[in-house]
Structure formats: structure tokens, C-alpha cells
Write a structure and sequence with these properties.
The structure is a homodimer of 100-residue chains. Chain A starts with 14 loop residues before the first helix and ends with a helix. The longest helix of chain A has 13 residues. Chain A is built from 5 helices and 2 strands. In chain A, a hairpin with a 2-residue loop joins strand 1 and strand 2. Chain A has 100 residues and is of the alpha+beta class. Chain A has a single domain, classed as Arc Repressor Mutant, subunit A (Orthogonal Bundle), CATH 1.10.10. Chain A is globular, with a radius of gyration of 16 Å. Chain A has a two-stranded antiparallel sheet with strand order 1-2. Chains A and B meet through helix 1, helix 2 and helix 5 of A and helix 1, helix 2 and helix 5 of B. Chain A binds a DNA duplex (30 and 30 nucleotides) through helix 4.
Chain lengths: 100, 100
DNA sequence: CTGGTTTATCGTAATTAAACGATAAGAGAA
DNA sequence: TTCTCTTATCGTTTAATTACGATAAACCAG
């Protein structure tokens, strides 16, 4: 009945979105990564591997998980990759969580 | 070295706590339950089963998950159980999440 | 081009989560 | 007591997560 958005189903209450972000934050290593990225402000990459007591491949997997959820962005800089927090998604998450 | 709290390790930054709460919220059904409990204000029980397209045993499992994480409290009232949000834990979660 | 550095992906094994039906346990009503 | 209603738990199957080592891919330095 509206002009646009034929089946926009009010994402601001969408349990799928909130659940997917929470799921990504549902592991201590990934929470630590988010806290670290927040504190450094700068984008960092390989330092995260040193930070955690996990194999490099495992850390890379966790980073992918956070990226898939939209919580972080990765930028390739030469031979390495720099990650930083995606504040848009993070804020949206905080807003939805706050509505609980 | 302090009088109390021999090994209090600053829970306000503890990734374990935040991760465990997020993990509990990492499923659409459980997010829906939290939203529903928030909106009703009243404690509810069997209505949650009708709300979701899931078997009663599955819903009960999700409720247990939320309860184990501390997000909800359950009270036995006669033959039925009433659940309500545990605001202490929820607020603690929101505070920690906000620090991200 | 060759070698070193950095990160992502593949393959795999072990653990955990999700869903269901069936069953048990508890409280009231008849 | 017996029957019904409500909810939790058990047992099971299927799917997803977590972790690792090994390997591939991309980039620079020499």
C-alpha cells in the first residue's frame, strides 16, 4: 500500500538481526577482539593474533564471523588486512538491545 | 591487598560474561521471547509456546537457556511457571555492550 | 624471479546447539 | 484417588561451532 518498500517488515524489531549480531558476540574471543578494536581506535590486524591464545587460522575465522555479522570492516592494505569497528551496525545493535 | 574481593577481576570488562549473555541472545526465538516479556511486563509462561512456531519442549529449552544466562527469572505458580526479565542482568549487559 | 611475510581458506576432528517426540513431575479439579 | 493441565527433562538425530595444522594467495624486498 505504500509507494516503496513492498515488504519492509520493520527491521528495528527484527529478531533475526539482533540475534545474528548477538551470536557473533557470543564467544569470549570475539568480544575481546571488539574490545581491543575499540581501545585502539586504529585498525589493527596481526596484533589480534598475538593478543589471543589461539592459532592464526582460528583468529582469522573469528574475524570472518564478526565481519559477516557486519560488526567490523576489513581493509586490505598491502600484504596485510586492517580491521576496524563498523559503528553503524554497532549502534544499531545497541539501539535494538536497549529496546529489550 | 584489598580488604574484600580477593580475586575480583573487574567483571565490568570480563569478556566471558558479555559473551555468555550474547550467546543466549544469539537465537531469533530467544530474542523474540525477550521482546515479548518486555512488552507484556507481566510474567507469562505458556503463551510463549503459542507465540512461537516451535514445539513445547523446544521452547522450554530456550527458556532454560535464557534462565541459565540470568536474563530471565522463572517462578512456579501453581501448575504453571511465570517468567519475567531479570533487569539487573539485562542492565549489566547493556552497560557492557555500550562500552564496545 | 625468488624468498619472506601476512592473511584467508581448506580439510578434519571434537564439541556443542537445535529440534522433536515421548515421558515424567507437579498442582488442582472432579 | 484419578484425571487433566502445564511445564521440565530425557533420549535421539541432525546441523553448526570451534579449533587446529596445512596450504594457498597476495604483496613487497631483494
Amino acid at each position: 500500500m505504500d509507494k516503496k518498500a513492498p515488504k519492509k517488515h520493520d527491521e528495528s524489531l527484527d529478531p533475526e538481526f539482533l540475534a545474528s549480531v548477538c551470536k557473533a558476540l557470543g564467544h569470549p574471543a570475539r568480544v575481546s577482539i571488539m574490545q581491543f578494536l575499540r581501545n585502539t581506535d586504529h585498525c589493527i590486524c596481526g596484533e589480534i593474533v598475538e593478543l589471543l591464545p589461539l592459532a592464526q587460522s582460528t583468529v582469522s575465522q573469528h574475524l570472518k564471523c564478526l565481519k559477516d555479522a557486519g560488526l567490523i570492516k576489513g581493509e586490505i592494505e598491502g600484504p596485510r588486512t586492517c580491521y576496524c569497528v563498523n559503528k553503524d551496525i554497532l549502534n544499531k545493535f545497541l539501539q535494538m538491545a536497549g529496546a529489550l
